[in-house]
Every structure is written in structure tokens, then in C-alpha cells.
Specification:
This protein is of the alpha+beta class. The chain folds into 2 domains: 2-50 and 168-263, RNA polymerase, RBP11-like subunit (Gyrase A, domain 2, 2-Layer Sandwich), CATH 3.30.1360.10; 53-166, RNA Polymerase Alpha Subunit, Chain A, domain 2. The chain is 19% helix and 35% strand. The protein contains 5 helices and 13 strands. The protein has helices spanning 37-49, 70-78, 186-189, 215-223, 247-263; strands at residues 9-10, 17-23, 27-33, 53-64, 106-114, 117-120, 125-126, 139-143, 148-158, 169-180, 198-201, 204-207, 227-241. A hairpin with a 3-residue loop joins strand 2 and strand 3 (27-33). Helix 1 crosses helix 5. The longest helix has 17 residues, at 247-263.
């Protein structure tokens, strides 16, 4: 695990420290020290509900002889995660077109299919080639012989606060665990804890991989007599992106959102 860790960064003039424990294409685990529970939860909420992503919002049907109503097809389209480039699009409310869905705040597309065929997310055709369905094999509808589906749609930027289809990720965090194993039976507990996740040395417990450390392991240790204290000034975050944005982008955008909100705070 030590080889995967990045250098600790300390914010100038602040005691807060952050360290990346593990990072992959759609997931990142990092530890933040020097903040309280309120700020930790603010980071979680900003990442999940304030970071904008693209999602299909308006759907115009020309033909639909499938077994699904227009509303159900439109709902399914809206829930398909789309690759998002935040530098290319504005939120409709912030756009110069004043929410009229121009090319700066929306991307148009079409879907045309005739049965017998199963229509998948990969069949969506966007005018912007950089926009695509993250999971191409998400099924939309199955068309039988003679059935047709022809529609146009517009995808726009939005936030999870308005609808979960615009949520960028799932985030969870927990307090950094500290162990007191003076009166514990560690041999029994470690029978079910992988050696690459944690190890014991005498009465000392060391977590080697917090990215795979689970609450269940803490419960095993607690049953064996280990006293566990979760710190309220040091937290382990895990961000699982749905694929629209990279985890790094989500973290940066979430912090930008919080900074912008702080600028509007007036202290008396």
C-alpha cells in the first residue's frame, strides 16, 4: 500500500492534510486530516449533489409503437450516465441563451430503430462526438417485428440536487480507526481478515489497505475484545464515480463549489 500512496499535501496556512490512498479509473480513496464532521459531510454532499453532469432532459417522440409508453422510454433515457466535459457546457441557468438550450448548454441527439431488435444506450446518436453513454449495453426497449422507435432528445447539465440522474458519484466516509488491543484475542479475529488488508504485531494492529478495509473487520475485532475509536478530525473518503467524470475532477469541482459558497458568507 505504501507504494501507491501519494505525497501528503498540506494547505498553506491551514492544518488540513490530504493523502491519496488508492486511485483507479472510477474510484478514489483518500484520507483528510484536520477537518471536523460538518466539513466532511459538506464535501460528501457537494460531490454527490452539487457537481454538474450531463443527462437527457427533453425527449420528442416522432414514432413509438413499442410496448413502453413515451414517459417510460424518456425516463429510461434520462437515467443513462453520459460522458461529460464540464469545459464544453454551461448550466442552462448560467448560459447566455437564458435557458433556451443552445449548443453551449445542451447537446442534441437522435434515436431511430426498427424491430425486431433490442435498443441499447449505444444506439443513441449525439451531435457532439465526445458525448456518449458510459455503459453502452444498457437496454432501453425491445422492439418486436413491425415496431418502431424514432425520437429526438436534448441532454443538459444539471445537479443531483434537482434530480438523481445528474448525480456524479456515490461518496462515503468514516472516521480513522484507532485500536486498543490490550485485552483482545487477536489470533481469532485475524482468521477472517486478509493479510494484505491488515496485520498484527503483538498487541499492535496496522491497517495496510484502507481502500479495502471494511466495517465488518472492525466488528470482528470488537468481538475479540479490541476497543476501537473512530477519530472525528481524520476521515477516510471513498468516491465511486458513475463514469461521467473522473474521481479527480469530482473532488476538484466539489471543493470549488464549497469555496464559491464560502465567498457568499458574510460574517458580522
Amino acid at each position: 500500500m505504501a507504494a501507491e500512496r501519494k505525497a501528503v499535501k498540506e494547505v498553506e496556512g491551514c492544518k488540513m492534510k490530504a493523502e491519496i490512498l488508492k486511485q483507479s479509473e472510477n474510484e478514489i480513496t483518500f484520507v483528510v486530516e484536520g477537518i471536523g464532521p460538518a466539513l466532511a459531510n459538506a464535501i460528501r454532499r457537494a460531490a454527490m449533489f452539487e457537481v454538474p453532469t450531463l443527462a437527457i432532459e427533453d425527449v420528442y417522440f416522432n414514432k413509438n409503437s413499442s410496448v413502453l409508453y413515451d414517459e417510460i422510454v424518456a425516463h429510461r433515457l434520462g437515467l443513462i450516465p453520459l460522458k461529460t466535459d464540464l469545459k464544453s457546457y454551461n448550466l442552462p441557468a448560467d448560459c447566455t441563451c437564458k435557458d433556451k438550450l443552445c449548443a453551449k448548454c445542451s447537446v442534441k441527439g437522435t434515436l431511430k430503430a426498427k424491430g425486431p431488435v433490442t435498443v441499447y444506450a449505444e444506439d443513441l446518436k449525439f451531435k457532439d462526438a465526445s458525448v456518449r453513454a458510459i455503459q453502452p449495453k444498457i437496454p432501453i426497449v425491445k422492439l418486436l417485428e413491425g415496431q418502431e422507435l424514432e425520437l429526438e432528445f436534448a441532454a443538459v447539465l444539471g445537479k443531483g440536487l434537482e434530480h438523481t440522474k445528474w448525480s456524479s458519484c456515490h461518496v462515503y466516509y468514516r472516521g480513522w480507526p484507532e485500536f486498543d488491543a490490550k485485552d483482545a484475542d487477536l489470533d481469532k479475529a485475524f482468521e477472517n481478515i486478509p493479510s494484505n488488508v491488515a496485520k498484527k504485531s503483538g498487541r499492535t494492529i496496522e491497517v495496510l489497505d484502507f481502500a479495502h478495509w471494511q466495517i465488518a473487520y472492525e466488528e470482528l475485532l470488537a468481538k475479540s475484545g479490541v476497543k476501537i475509536t473512530n477519530r472525528d478530525d481524520k476521515f477516510i473518503f471513498t468516491i465511486e464515480s458513475w463514469g461521467q467524470l473522473t474521481p479527480k475532477t469530482i473532488v476538484n469541482e466539489a471543493l470549488n463549489v464549497l469555496q464559491d459558497k464560502l465567498k457568499t458568507v458574510k460574517l458580522k
